[in-house]
Amino acid sequence: MSLTAPAPSDQVPAPASVRPLSADEIACYQRDGFVLLRGFFSPEEIEPLRVSCLADPLVSGNLVAIADSQGNAQEVVSWTEMSDDLVGVIPRMARVVQAAAALVGRPVYHWHSKLSMKAPGSAGRWDWHQDYAYWYHEGCLFPDMATCTIAVDRAFPENGCLRLVKGSHHLGRLEHPRVGEASAVDPVRLEQALARLETVDCEMVPGDALFFDSNTLHASGPNLSQEPRTLLHCSYNATDNSPFIAGQEHHAYRPIDILPDSVLREGRFKSGFGDQQFIYRGETGQTNTYGYKLLRGSRPRDKVSSPLDPFST
Ligand SMILES: O=C(O)CCC(=O)C(=O)O
Q1: How many other C-beta atoms lie within 10 A of the C-beta of residue 196?
Q2: Cβ of 261 less than 6 Å from ligand 1
Q3: Which of 150, 262, 275, 299 has the greatest count of CB atoms below 10 A from its CB?
């Protein structure tokens, strides 16, 4: 079941963004499939989340480890609910939501967010993939979806910063078969794309934000450094593109309560993630529909009351 978007006349005016995108930034996103916005947040705004992640790098036991193609652990925690914690506040901030809407080209709602954490010296990598390859199977008819990736830590090639293939969103949705222990983009297509298109290492400092299209090929390598690498990914879907299949109710359209951009500066949040409900991914050893194996599962179900989503990447 999905709700339909309210008529524009029913909507309360949203707080204005302090950082609306320029026409050039929107054109860059449309041409390249991504746009990097330096200093989208100030480092001070992101510092409380950085400190929370440093203090509790397993996110209260909710950080799951999913096997990559080589069987190494890639660690992530995801949510769709919006708490009053930093992880529920940041995805609702005017500058993020309104930039996502400008790039998708129409109003958006929150699809899901995640913290993707690479501990110093961790071997896990995100294999090359498009997010829409997975969201297609979750019932979104159009690829009208975008992600805002916010650097919580410094991200650089040695600690596994995000890598993107410029212009790869123009390829459309590619097949994602099983590759080794995981699923990833078809290696034959990938080889062709990498030979013809430029690959970009997305180096970021805390507060930088990268918006990318749901069909943009992206990946990241292991963390060979002594520094943690945490990225906050906030993903959005067009309000009229709610999933049409059963089992995706947690991803169904819900209006966003857009928050003023001053919330972080004014300290209007409860904690880092203490009150946040996270998606339950299943138990250690389980394998999901896409073939991802959980090397370390979620906290036991009785301690979390959250949607089951073993599929979403
Ligand atoms: O955080 C990363 O390095 C990439 C994460 C990613 O691509 C994903 O979660 O789909």
Answers
A1: 11
A2: no
A3: 150
Phi first, then psi: give them for residue 196, nearest 5 degrees. -105, -25
For 104-113, 141-150, 230-239, 289-298, which range has the lowest pLDDT when averaged over its residues? Answer: 289-298
Within a domain: 311: no
Kindly give the distance from the C-alpha atom of residue 149 to the centroid of ligand 1, in angstroms, as a whole number. 9
**Residue that the structure tokens 């983009």 belong to:** 185
Take atom 10 of ligand 1 and give the residue whose Cα is closest.
Answer: 313
**pLDDT tens profile 131-177:** 999 999 999 999 999 999 999 999 999 999 999 999 999 999 999 99
The tally of domains found in the chain comes to 1
pLDDT in tens, 239-278: 999 999 999 999 999 999 999 999 999 999 999 999 999 9
Residue 309 lies in a domain: no
126 lines ligand 1 (CB under 6 A): yes
